[in-house]
Amino acid sequence: MVGMDEFVGRLNPDMCVVTAAAGGERAGCLVGFASQCSIRPVRFVVWLSEVNHTFRVARSAQVLAVHLLARDQRALAELFGGRTGDREDKLRHVRWREGYGGAVILQDAPAWFVGRIVTRVGGGDHIGFVLDPVEWGEREAYDGPLLRLDDARTISPGHPVD
Prior knowledge:
The protein is built from 4 helices and 9 strands, in the order αββββαβαββββα. The chain has helices at residues 2-9, 53-58, 74-82, 149-152, and strands at 16-22, 25-31, 34-38, 43-49, 63-68, 96-98, 104-106, 111-122, 126-138. The strands form 2 sheets. Strands 2-1-5-8-9-4-3 form a 7-stranded antiparallel β-sheet. It starts with a helix and ends in a 10-residue tail after the last helix.
């Protein structure tokens, strides 16, 4: 599959932080697999690794929050991508508030939305959570560059990838 590795290596998607809350537990992780997946109705899918603490919280959640990061928010990306919620409460290090349905909204994200989970779909070692956006917002008119995969490649995952 060297050819496919080369193809995927050319991609440079926006990175986001996905947060979940359920059963009195909160979690969040850095995600590189996310995309709009429907025009009408608008739907968005985020893919969470099955070995990730956030996945375990998300599978019981009714909503998830998806946050874009600015390129200069690498420390935030390192927190959510380089540490695991199995050993640490990442949210104690950031400003956040509760949103629709108990969603965890990161207050310093340039833009975010909360989506009601419509369905979950398998996709290899990740599960796709298809979201129906129900609430959204942004920090004061941020129009700078967003954090992309190339900006986050050197972050060592907080948990094994398999």
